[in-house]
Amino acid sequence: MTHRTRPPSRSCPNCDGFASAAVTLGGRDRHGHLRTISAHCPVCHGTGTARRLARLREDARA
Questions:
Q1: CB-CB neighbours of 15 under 10 Å
Q2: How far apart are CA 20 and CA 38, in angstroms?
Q3: DSSP letters of 5-45?
């Protein structure tokens, strides 16, 4: 009996699926809260997934 194979992973090759990160700015505001910004992956735009290969092939033909 053959084993079932999983579909290939669609995680972004640039960020490995960790699309967003919180970066501290090094200080606290007047209320004592840590100031942070969120940085998103420029390739997948914060989704963590890559485009499908079929769509990439269609774009390459055009």
A1: 19
A2: 6
A3: PPPPP-B-TTTTT--EEEEEEEEE-TTSPEEEEEEE-TTTT
> Which of 52, 51, 25 minimizes the C-alpha distance to 36?
25
Q: pLDDT tens per residue, the chain (62 residues)? A: 677 877 767 888 888 888 888 899 888 989 999 999 999 988 888 888 887 655 555 555 55
Give Cα 8 distance to the centre of its chain.
16
| The model's pTM | 0.54
For residues 52 and 8, is the Cβ–Cβ distance under 8 A? no
* 3-state secondary structure (DSSP) of residue 49: strand
- Sorted by sequence, the CB contacts under 8 Å of residue 60 that are 6+ apart come out as none
